[in-house]
Structure formats: C-alpha cells, structure tokens
C-alpha cells in the first residue's frame, strides 16, 4: 500500500479549508514576529509536548511525513511508504540530496539514529517516547530506504511522524556537541535555521535557502515568549509583534475592531469537559450524571463566556477529529427534565457537587461559576475548588481525589480520537482514576489493531456513543483557535493546531 492509499486508510484525506488571510503575491523578504505563551526551555524534539514548541520548531525541523494547515498528511523527508509483512513492517523511501542546516547529509543513518535515540535512554528522559513505543526498531535497507519494524499495529503512527518526537535530527552534530548543546542550539532540515535563543525572551530563525521544498519567502522569523495575554494584545496593537497566539475571549472584540489587525477564529483541537466521578457520591448513578448534563446550558456558556468562539460537543473531540460522529448529538438542556431525573434517583436537596479545576485558567473559572449556577438551580449545592495545575494534574486526578466533577481540557494534536479516548477511558490510564469497564477497554484496544479506515472509524464512533450513553463526562465545548494578525502579514495559513510553517508567508 503506497502513501496515497495509506493516508486514505488513516482517514486523513478530508481537508479543512483554512484560507490564507491575504492573497499571495506580496513582496518577498522581511521579518515576521510571533508571540507564544511558553518558552519550552529545550528545542530538542524529544524533550517536549508543548504546542508552543511546535509553533516555532515546526519551521526548523522536518519529519518523515508532514501535515499542513489544510490537515492533509503528505510526504515530508520520506517520499513514499508501504506496509509489508502483514503490516508488521513499514518501508520508507527517503528524499535524496537533503542537508541539515550544518551541512550534514540527511540519509537512512540519520533516521535510524533519530529513532534509536528516541526509543533509547535519552528518549526515556522526555515525554515523547511513549508515543512511539509501538516501533520495535528501525533497520537501514540502503542509504535512502529504512524499515520500521513494529511491535504492534499503530494506525496513528504516520500522523505522529509529522510532529514533535518524530522530527529527524543530525547524528554527527549531536554526537560531537552533546545533548545539552543541542537543546539550546538546534539543527534540523527545515525551511528556517537557528540563529539565537535568549531563554524567556525570544528565538530567532533565518531562512534556509537550500531547503528541499524551496527557499521560504521571509528572511527571518522571531518568536517572542510572552505569557500574559494582555501583553500579547498590547504588543500586537503596537505593531511590535505580527501574530499573537494568546487572545483571551474577552479581548477578541478589541482585536477585531483594530483597523490594522485581523482576528482569525477557527475550529481547533481543544475540547473542554467536566469529567465525572463514577465511583463516589451522587455521580455514581448514570441517570444522575445524565441529569447534570441536561441541567447545564452549554450554549449559554459558549455565548456568554466564550463570546461565541466555540461550539457544543457530544463527545470529547472536535469535528476535525478522525472518529467524530456527526449523528451523535449532545443531550439537550432541559432543567425540568433534569430535576425530575434527580427526584427519581432520590438525590436529596442540597446534595454536594464539587468541581475541581485549574486555578490559573481565568476563562474556565467563569465557565465553572456558570455551571455552578445551573447546578444550584437543580437544587444541588455546588462548590468550586481551584488547584495549582501540577497538583490537579499529577495528584488530585490520577489518585482519584476529585469531587463529583473535574475540569478537563484536551488538545489531541493528532486529530485522532484514539489519542484522546484511550488516555481518558482505558483502565489504568492516568486520566481515568475511577472506571474499569471491560467492554470499553476491549473497544479501545480493538481499534488500535486496525488499519482499515472505515472499520476503525466505526469502532471509534461506537466508543464515542458508549461514553455518551454512560455519561462519563459533561461535554461542554470545542473552543476555537484564535489568532490576532497584523494586516501587513500576507499569505498566512492559520493552522488549527498552531503549528506554524512560514514557507509562503510574507510581510509588507
């Protein structure tokens, strides 16, 4: 099966029409300045899972596969691939005459080095190894051919190779300079090469004219690290940055009304829910869980808090996700019916419902307050419990210390429901402290063995329906990805996952 049929087999042929902000054809050259919220601290692909890393580093590195703003999977450093030996071996034909930024040649040895490193001791230190542990090892067939020998099927692997840990790195450079040097002085094969990194301040890249895809049209890309949303907006208004990635919903109208700025608001991967404690308290009862869903007006929250920059969800995924079922509809808001269901379940008036949430998330604090108002209208006694994010994510949730509900926001950059559902609902996973459902486990495991797109999609949709029927969470909304962009920027393709690739972009 060659790459075109493989992409179809993975359900990745549907394009999302994300039109450029402006028509192409503007003057080349210039410097583009973006702002992201977090300095990743290391530019090594195996050291991070942060979107902010990829917003910058996606311009420095290439993977064997690639995915653009249109969401289509396409060849990257591999020109084609095929499945052999009953899908237990994937053979990649590599692009020839490609060089790393330091002049080192890209070849099969570089691919093997990259994955030996990722799957070895160095990879154990970072968060990316577990995404690729379906790979047993990589074999060099010849200088331009490698085989991935698989431990087990992985229908999402080709997508994962387009980002983060799968980015190809230079063997000789890393062996000579060492890991610590590479972290701060990265070298890849991408369209822009590293110039300067000032921790907590900025990263500067310049065009790499010898890139295999052609020279980019910009001279430089500067990424500034600005953690405060208000500061990003102020810098955007002042013209000191060209693209802001941290636009609070409340400031979106300000950006939209600015004469020299454009607001881009598109469907993104991030979904938000209140997960429910199925072990303790009133939420042990599935009918109570359904009553809580029906008692919260999600449309009103989207309108009042998100100012319309989102949409309701029926399952914990956006409509860009492979496995999304358009026929699955969220339970409707029906306060009277919800009250009736609570009475039938003999829930006493004033029963407590505690919501644990990330205390630094100002938007969700408003969402939680609104949800609490609806729960109070049901005759319950809601309470809000903020936590420091590391405490909530590494202690309260995984150790099953939550109240009746807890805040869960998830991106899922692969846009494949597996990478959400397996981690959320399979027994033993960090994000599933309460459930051990043999039927759900079996469905989650089954789809991981399947390369047939239609059959796998059916199983993923069955998982979504089952989770909805069990009411394991209150699905709240899919929030939009929002960018503020200076109008001097031309031919800017807005990626739903914020993984910029500035090949065609120019500035006036």
TrEMBL record:
Location(s) in or outside the cell: Periplasm
All copies of domain Solute-binding protein family, residue ranges: 72-430
Keywords: Signal
Entry annotated with the keyword Signal: yes
InterPro entries named in the record: Peptide/Ni-bd, SBP_5, SBP_5_dom
Signal peptide (residue range): 1-28
Superkingdom assignment: Bacteria
Family: Belongs to the bacterial solute-binding protein 5 family.
Name recorded for this polypeptide: ABC transporter substrate-binding protein
Organism: Microvirga terrae
